Structure formats: structure tokens, C-alpha cells
Amino acid sequence: MIKRLSAEFIGTFWLVLGGCGSAVLAANFGGDGNPLGIGFVGVALAFGLTVLTGAYALGHISGGHFNPAVSFGLWAGGRFPARDLAPYIIAQVLGAIFAGFILLQIASGQPGFMIDPSAAGAFASNGYGAHSPGGYSIAAAFLCEVVMTAMFLIVILGATHPRAPAGFGPLAIGLALTLIHLISIPVTNTSVNPARSTGVGVFAGAQAISQLWFFWLAPIIGGLLSGVIYRWLGEKPDVVGDAR
């Protein structure tokens, strides 16, 4: 168990450092219009790459959750024991917070760096309402986070199914997370991961902290829904089209 929890800590650390680090350090490098800045397309790709590489590197040790919503979804889908939920989630959150701390130390090395806690997406934090990058309402943000997390788990459950093509699971999962970010960065700055939200949120100021509850509730609901749905889908006959 210690090795599995260590893998979850490292994988979540990598996800937050790589994904949020790209947003804080590289998304707008040099200012607007600078071709060296990667923009939100680059940030979306960075999040997908962290999951892809982390899953290949560590998935065989811990399952490569790196996300409390994934752990809850896998439990609801009958793929993960309830007794391991709390230890996994603690390891994930600690890894995310450590990544946020390291990212803050790196970012603070630039003269004049500061976090504006009133700004939408401050320090790559998630938000709704005035703290949504696009000013989206709490209702729109909730629907977005639930649906995006649910679809993410559908991909995870399908790509890791015993009958899925072997060895391609992390690729599908990484591409799915990239797509999710391309869709939802303007809405919530894309969470679909309570640990990711917490890891940078605790350093982003009071407003980000006050909205963290939302980015635990919505992704976990999405994860649970997808687990139930995929468990029902998994009861279909092995042969597609078999009418037995």
C-alpha cells in the first residue's frame, strides 16, 4: 500500500505541476500575442500529457488515478475497493498541494510576480461566477464539471476494460483530458479533479479557497454517475448484438 500511495502522490504532483505549471509559467509568456506563449490550447495539451505520461509510468503500481473523482468513479463502477478511497484521496491531495508549493517557489523567482486573488483563474485556480474565466454562472459551471468529469470516467472505464485494446488506455485518457480542457477552460478553468483544484487553490487566496467546495462536489458527482452508468453498460453481453 505504501508504494501505491507513493505512486498516487507522485502522479498527482506531476499532473498539477505540469498542467497548472504550464498555465502559470507558459500560457502567456511574453505577453499577449507573443508566439512563445502556449495559450490555453497548450495548457490543455499539457494536462493531457501529464496524465498520459503519469499513467504509463505509474499506472501499473497504483492504477494511475491521480484524482479523487476518478477514485470515486472507479469505486462506483466496481473497480476499486471502498477501504482504499480515503488513503488514495489523502495521497492525491498531498501530492497536489506539494506541486502547488513547488510551482509557487518557481513562479516567485520572477521579479514582480504576484498572485491577484481577485482575478479569475489566479494561479491557475478554478472558479465560477466572477471567478470563471468567461464569467459563467454557478449553474453552468456545475453542469460543465459534472458532465466533463462523467465523460472522463466513461473514457477511463472503457479504455481500461479487459476487452479494450491493450496498452492504449493512457493515450485515450490523456487525449480525453486534453479535449475536456479545450471545451471547459473558459467556463471553470477546468477542474474535473478536486485534488488539482485544491493544490493551487490553497495558494491562490481567499476567493479560490471559498469556492473549493464546489470543485469537490461537482467532479465527485460526475465520477459517481459515470461509475453507475458504466457498471450498467458492463452488464451487456460480451458479444455486441447478441440478443441473449
UniProtKB/TrEMBL annotation:
Belongs to the MIP/aquaporin (TC 1.A.8) family. Its main location: membrane. Homotetramer. This is Aquaporin Z. A motif (NPA 2) lies at residues 193-195. A motif (NPA 1) lies at residues 67-69. It comes from Lysobacter cavernae. It is found in: Cell membrane. It catalyses: H2O(in) = H2O(out). Channel that permits osmotically driven movement of water in both directions. It is involved in the osmoregulation and in the maintenance of cell turgor during volume expansion in rapidly growing cells. It mediates rapid entry or exit of water in response to abrupt changes in osmolarity. The keyword Glycoprotein does not apply. It is a multi-pass membrane protein. PANTHER family: AQUAPORIN TRANSPORTER (PTHR19139), MIP17260P (PTHR19139:SF199). Aquaporins contain two tandem repeats each containing three membrane-spanning domains and a pore-forming loop with the signature motif Asn-Pro-Ala (NPA). The record marks 47, 181, 190, 196 as: Selectivity filter. The record marks 20 as: Involved in tetramerization or stability of the tetramer. Keywords: Cell inner membrane, Cell membrane, Membrane, Repeat, Transmembrane, Transmembrane helix, Transport.
